[in-house]
Amino acid sequence: MLELKNLSINVSDKKIIRNLNLKLEKNKVYVLMGPNGCGKSTLALTLMGHPLYKIKSGTIYFDNKNITKSESDKRAGAGIFLSFQSPLSLSGVSVFSLLRTAIAGKKDPLAL
């Protein structure tokens, strides 16, 4: 489902991740753990296509499609989602309701 091949990522001119190879299979749960500053957020934001994180080499495949140069909205449309440890809350809106609405919008963009 998600495969990274020789992925190297820079922020400004600083190399943060070098030659990362990773394969995550569908219907499995994975946890990314490590100390502060080891590149977890860099990897997550790069997978979402954040413009400050530059892929210097390597490729990202999602559902066997090369998304390395895809814009973040295209990645989100394909099903890539980034959640935060302490997300902002919307008064009166449950996480379940928010996710249900997002999924409905993916099936029918006019549902949002």
Question: Which descriptors would you attach to this protein?
Answer:
about 110 residues; alpha+beta; Rossmann fold; four-stranded antiparallel sheet; 3 helices; about 30% strand; globular
Structure in a nutshell:
This protein is an alpha+beta fold and about 110 residues long. It has one domain: 3-Layer(aba) Sandwich (Rossmann fold).
Q: Which range does the strand content fall in?
A: 25-35%
- In CATH terms, the superfamily is P-loop containing nucleotide triphosphate hydrolases
Pick out the low-confidence regions: none
Total DSSP E strands = 4
Pfam families: ABC_tran
Protein name: ABC transporter ATP-binding protein
InterPro entries: ABC_transporter-like_ATP-bd, FeS-cluster_ATPase_SufC, P-loop_NTPase
GO molecular function: ATP binding; ATP hydrolysis activity
Describe what you observe in this structure.
The mean pLDDT is about 90. The radius of gyration is 16 Å and the shape is globular. The chain has helices spanning about 40-50, 70-80, 95-105, and strands at about 1-10, 15-25, 55-60, 65. Helix content is about 25%, strand content about 30%. Strand 3 and strand 4 form a beta hairpin. It has a four-stranded antiparallel sheet. The chain has a single domain, classed as P-loop containing nucleotide triphosphate hydrolases (Rossmann fold). The chain is built from three helices and four strands. It is α+β, with helices and mostly antiparallel strands and about 110 residues long. Pfam families: ABC_tran. Belongs to the ABC transporter superfamily. Ycf16 family. Keywords: ATP-binding, Nucleotide-binding. It comes from Candidatus Roizmanbacteria bacterium CG_4_9_14_3_um_filter_33_18. One of its GO terms (molecular function) is ATP hydrolysis activity.
